[in-house]
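Severity: low
Component: inverse-folding endpoint
Summary: output formatting inconsistent between runs
Steps to reproduce: submit the following structure tokens with default settings.
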């Protein structure tokens, strides 16, 4: 039980660390009066990062471009760092001996999570959805702060989806390799 609590606490800490730059981006990027920083950031994102991806607002182009690129790139990175940190510090909870899932159940889980992950990946990293052209979602694109709220709600989903992918693949690999080691011996 103590291991699970430490794992959850570590997950919350990494999630909070990932949410801090959202506030900083909101404070320092102003689309109403373009500054040298915002123009440089816009050019850097277009030339070196993903460009205009994810859910953006044409009313706040630099802000939404910066925050959507941060969301698309940092959530997977932070989830890998968190999982590596948990492995290094050995805070991962031990798997229950009661649940003996078969390889076919693992494969079904991997396929389902992979499909769901691909949908998130397409929306986050490849498609550009301008919120001003949508009905209910368009309300989020009308204000810088509602757009921030949308991304703050979306970031934990994307972060946890990445963690789930890593966890399922690692669990399957451990289970598969344990079975292979038993066969070899």
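Observed output (run 2 of 3):
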């Amino acid at each position: 039980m103590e291991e699970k609590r430490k794992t959850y606490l570590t997950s919350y800490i990494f999630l909070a660390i990932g949410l801090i730059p959202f506030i900083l981006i909101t404070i320092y990027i102003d689309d109403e009066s373009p500054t040298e920083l915002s123009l440089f950031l816009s050019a850097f994102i277009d030339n070196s990062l993903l460009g205009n991806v994810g859910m953006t607002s044409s009313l706040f182009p630099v802000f939404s471009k910066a925050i959507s690129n941060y969301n698309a790139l940092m959530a997977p990175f932070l989830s890998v760092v968190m999982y590596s940190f948990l492995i290094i510090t050995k805070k991962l909870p031990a798997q229950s001996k009661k649940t003996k899932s078969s390889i076919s159940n693992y494969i079904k889980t991997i396929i389902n999570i992979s499909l769901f992950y691909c949908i998130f990946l397409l929306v986050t990293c490849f498609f550009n959805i301008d919120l001003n052209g949508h009905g209910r979602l368009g309300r989020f694109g009308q204000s810088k702060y509602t757009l921030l709220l949308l991304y703050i709600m979306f970031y934990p989903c994307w972060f946890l989806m990445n963690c789930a992918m890593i966890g399922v693949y690692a669990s399957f690999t451990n289970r598969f390799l344990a079975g292979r080691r038993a066969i070899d011996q």
